[in-house]
Amino acid sequence: MREMIISELIQALHDLARGFAHFLPRLIVMLILAFAGWVIAYVVKVVLRSVLKLIKFDKLSENAGASQLLTRAALPSATELLTRFVFWVAWLGFILLGVSVLGILGLQEQIARFFLFVPRLFVAMFILFLGLLSASFFSRAALLAAVNANVPSPRVLSLAVRSIIIVFVLSIVFEELGLAEQTMLVAFGIAFGALMFGLAIAFGMGGRGLAQRFLEKKFVRGKKEENEDELSPL
Amino acid sequence: MPLHQDVLWYKDAIVYQVHVRTFQDSNGDGIGDFPGLEEKLDYLLELGINAIWLMPFFPSPLRDDGYDIADYSTVHSSYGTLEDFRKLLGSAHDRGIRVIIEMVLNHTSDQHPWFQESRSSKDNPRRDWYVWSDTNTRYQGTRIIFLDAETSNWAWDPISTSYYWHRFFSHQPDLNYDNPAVREQMWNVMKFWLEMGVDAFRLDAVPYLVEREGTNCENLLETHEILKELRRQLDEHFPGRMLLAEANQWPADLRPYFGDGDEFHMAFHFPLMPRMFMGLKLEDRKPITEILQQTPEIPPSCQWSLFLRNHDELTLEMVTDEERDYMYDMYAQDKTMRLNLGIRRRLAPLLNNDRRRIELMNGMLMSLPGTPIIYYGDEIGMGDNINLGDRNGVRTPMQWSGEWNGGFSAADPEHLYAPLIQDPVYGYPAVNVLRQKASEHSLLNWMRSIITVRRSTAVFGRGSIEFLYPANHRILAYVRRLGNEAVLVVNNLSGTAQAVELDLRRYKGNILIEMSGQNMFPRVGDQPYLLTMGPYQFYWFRLRRV
Amino acid sequence: METKLAEETFLTDDFLRQLINVGEVDILVGLPTHNNAKTIGSIVHTIQSGILQCFPRERAVIINADGGSRDGSTELVTGASIDDVRPASNLYALRTLHAISTQYASSPASGVALRTILAAAELLRAKACVVLSPESANIEPEWLAKLLHPVRRDGFDLVTPTYRRHKFEGLLITNLLYPMVRALYGVGIREAYTPEFGFSSRLGSHFLAQNAWNDGTGGTGVELRFALAAIAGGYRICQSFLGEKDHIERHAADLVPALRQTVGTLFSALEPDFPVWSTVAGSRPVPTTGADQEVLLEPLRVNRKRLREMFSTGVAELESVFESILSPSTLAELQRIARQGEEEFHYSGELWVKTVYEFAAAYQRSVISRDHIIQALAPIFRGRAFTFLMENRDASAEDVENNIEGLCLEFERLKPYLLQMWKSRE
């Protein structure tokens, strides 16, 4: 009987060793992958940083108003942020690839889903960035136009424009990320509709005079009033 | 023997204007004469001339270039005898060359026997042959023509102690055309020469024949009556002879002199000539087309007479002040070239001896509606001598060769009636008939060929004219038509190459045949006809429908 | 002499054919139009008279560059040609006068119009050219001589006009354009932005070849760019007094487009012209022919209060925008005076110059959209206009000139400030 136990033991040890021998290379591969991934991600980060500097990404984000947000949140600059983000995503990708090599079931699926998710994440971020940019631009345009046309409460108008655009952009982003799509869409629809309705009433009642003048200018030719109070700047 | 075959011969004529004195001296006295001219008729025949116009050759004190005539019935002794003239006439007719002579109707020299008689006493039978008056206040307001020389149209005659009327120089008393005897006598004078065989008269100073109180004494109805009467008698007794009017007037004012085809056959178109020079300098056809647009229609038997230069200055009377200033600035910067209201230069010097421009101007002369007159010497591009005073600079001896006196005369150079041109560019060693005959591309040979082309068709002399108005204003283009024949003339008035599109839709289907080389050019289609022209180039195209 | 080929491929076949027929000219009159039938008839006849009176012997052509008129403007121009085809004209002319027209676009663009005219001038080898405005109904025949003789006779390359104007008209010019161009470029052109000017073939070809047509600004403000190109290229410039400047309709709303065409153009030109204006110090006057410009003094009713109010509102509402553009001190100053009442309000010359220069620097760095920077200048300008009106309310012509001169010197004095801001960006 002692021989049986010993041989079983030896058998078990063998099994363990085999299992270990089976597992160890994979572990090594995973570590190699992780290391390689780190190197590649680092290279990508450096290249991306140069590219972003070339296209003056910082400036763009400043225009978008994103820079101000980042500073307030005590985050580093947009370029820095983006490159780091890309670095981590890339490295994480390689690590997960390594982990998948390990062959642990169940994990494969999650990893696959992760990889499917990443592109959409990028797209959503891109949309968000563009959205912020245009919100900033158009709200400023509205502000300037209103001030120069002597329209009352120009800042309100500007803010309204900015809000509408941001809300719109956010809803698209959420849709893209697949987070509570329907809810967001409906919510946006309601908010937008309400806002428009409110604005319509406000403008309709308060902006009658302006609308009238506008229409006169556009459609009634030859009725240019000689406004002697105004000087020709040229 | 006179030639009478074609009553409209003057429409096909190429006229050569020459003064006997300048052409050829046969007897070595330094002055050209009739026998000399006769010797040179073959030269003219070869050139293509079929009519010569002789400047006044009558006996005369020569105080107005021979236009002050002292005897209507013979010739000045310097030029030969009457018999010499008869011989010349015969030789010319033998070669088919007609002869046009001058006839001054309006006045005579004060040396003329008629005037000598008329002034001798108030009872003289010829008293009434001139216009006398006790006062010089009659016909007030009549303009003085020679403003530089005269202050009044009346001159005082000490012999008969009264005033006599003269529209020109005071030594040229006006004949009195209210006197039938005068009219008859003048007709007899003309008859004398007509019977000898002369083919035509250039009638000088015709607007001034008759005076009437309260008028400007020009172009009066009575004058026209007299002229019509002369014409009537001419047609009756001498059919086929021609009357050419010298009247420096606007075309519209000239029109009455054609009557209804019962007065003058021809008249000079004075205003056109300076405008041709102007158009050339401006590089713009506008002055030319405008004057021709303003030219009235004339009776079918009548003809305009065209010329580039003549014995007088290039007259700038019939242009605006602006145009005159322009012409002076462009063509006569040197003020000594300016005389009266004109420029006293020959054709070649006016055009800076530019062969292309000389050809272009002659081309227009030969293709515009009218009978062309070539001034002697211009066919070889003779120069002028401004220092000779008055207009004598353009009346120097003809240059026949590079030899003694240019081949004009055997006399000593000091005896010549005027010195020859001697400068290196225009002088007789360089510019002469002999050399140009020998040179294939000389101006003389070119003139010969263009005259040949001109004479090859009756279109130029007798046809109508229709202007094309291409958008390129540097191009003067027109179509001459006669019956079924049509010739397209295109002239580039600018010194630079030009492209022009002509609207030839009316002539669609015609092939263009260039008339000097006889080569075909593309057929006229629907599209505007594109031509490219070199500097100062011109084309004559026969339009041929096959 | 080398002739550079112009970019003439944008000319229509028909126009090119017309140009071939016109041939070489001595004088070219360029006339851009867009629905100007009311005024163009008499203007064109005045041009005709001017040519016949002042240049009877020269070969001349009138080139009409039309931006899609539908009221027969082009026919009115081409009807002015004098030739032998229509001899009914009772005007006496020594030569043919061509008047041809081309439509360069279906909507007006002054840059393309000028480009067409310049291309035509180069192809026709015009020796002296003049561009006239289709709105100057008070033009006189002598204007042609005044704008062309300096080119023809005296060898100048650019002739800008000076006018008889009311002291309160053209404030954008007297308070910004003129002093700034003078201070930066060193040349005292009074009316650098002008729809009517004379120029030589040299300058025309130079400008045409610069190929500034594709820079995305659509050729706006080309009237100013032409003058700046002349200065930058070292061409000879002079001024000629024309007469009274025609009254164009005035609208407060016109300020922003005016700013775009003038200030926008000037700011965008500063970058490429940096080598030129950075090395210039001081300024030199421009030779002037004819009378000195005149200033009209009659009292003019102006809504000053509105100007000041719009300034204050602008400063308040646009704070977020100004923060990107102005330095903190300047902004603080502006806010301070915005709070002042009408009596104490004073927008000093020095502050104005600093404001303008900071705007220019911000424009160069594109801190925000460049068009927004220009728009933001509008209320600020109104404040300055208000001060100018107050200062010169009772001023004589001489006083007004002196005040303007003072402002010019201020611009010159503070030029290093602009240079400093400019360089610190790099």
Reconstruct the topology from this structure:
The complex is a heterotrimer of chains A (234), B (546) and C (426).
Chain A: H1 2-54, H2 57-64, H3 66-72, H4 78-102, H5 107-148, H6 154-177, H7 181-206, H8 208-219
Chain B: E1 15-18, H1 20-23, H2 34-39, H3 41-47, E2 51-54, H4 82-94, E3 98-104, H5 113-120, E4 132-133, E5 154-157, E6 162-165, H6 180-196, E7 200-204, H7 221-237, E8 242-245, H8 251-254, E9 266-268, H9 272-282, H10 286-294, E10 303-307, E11 314-315, H11 321-331, E12 338-339, E13 342-343, H12 347-350, H13 355-367, E14 371-375, H14 433-438, H15 443-455, H16 459-462, E15 464-468, E16 475-482, E17 485-492, E18 498-502, E19 511-514, E20 520-523, E21 529-533, E22 538-544
Parallel strand pairs in B: 1-2, 1-14, 2-3, 3-7, 7-8, 8-9, 9-10, 10-14
Antiparallel strand pairs in B: 4-6, 5-6, 11-13, 12-13, 15-16, 16-17, 17-22, 18-21, 19-20, 19-22
Chain C: H1 13-22, E1 27-33, H2 37-54, E2 60-66, H3 73-78, E3 98-103, H4 110-123, E4 128-131, H5 142-152, E5 158-166, H6 171-185, E6 197-200, H7 201-209, H8 222-232, E7 237-244, H9 255-270, H10 274-277, E8 288-289, E9 294-296, H11 304-317, H12 319-325, H13 328-338, H14 349-365, H15 370-391, H16 397-413, H17 415-424
Parallel strand pairs in C: 1-2, 1-4, 2-3, 5-7, 5-9, 7-8
Antiparallel strand pairs in C: 4-6, 5-6
Helix pairs in contact in C: 2-5, 4-7, 6-9, 6-16, 8-9, 9-15, 11-13, 11-15, 14-15, 14-17
Provide a brief overview of the structure.
The complex is a heterotrimer of chains A (234), B (546) and C (426). Chain A has helices at 2-54, 57-64, 66-72, 78-102, 107-148, 154-177, 181-206, 208-219.
Structure explained in plain terms:
The complex is a heterotrimer of chains A (about 230), B (about 550) and C (about 425). Chain A has two domains: about 80 residues, no CATH class; about 100 residues. In chain A, about 85% of the residues lie in helices and about 0% in strands. Chain A has eight helices and no strands. Chain A starts with a helix and ends in a 15-residue tail after the last helix. Chain B has about 550 residues and is of the alpha/beta class. In chain B, the strands form five sheets. An eight-stranded parallel β-barrel of chain B has the order 1-2-3-7-8-9-10-14. In chain B, strand 2, helix 4 and strand 3 form a beta-alpha-beta unit. In chain B, helix 9 packs antiparallel against helix 10 and helix 9 crosses helix 11. The radius of gyration of chain B is 24 Å and the shape is globular. Chain C is built from 17 helices and nine strands. The radius of gyration of chain C is 22 Å and the shape is elongated. Chain C folds into two domains: about 290 residues, Spore Coat Polysaccharide Biosynthesis Protein SpsA, Chain A (Alpha-Beta Complex); about 120 residues, no CATH class. Chains in contact: A-C, B-C. At the A-C interface, helix 2 and helix 5 of A face helix 6, helix 9, helix 11 and helix 15 of C.
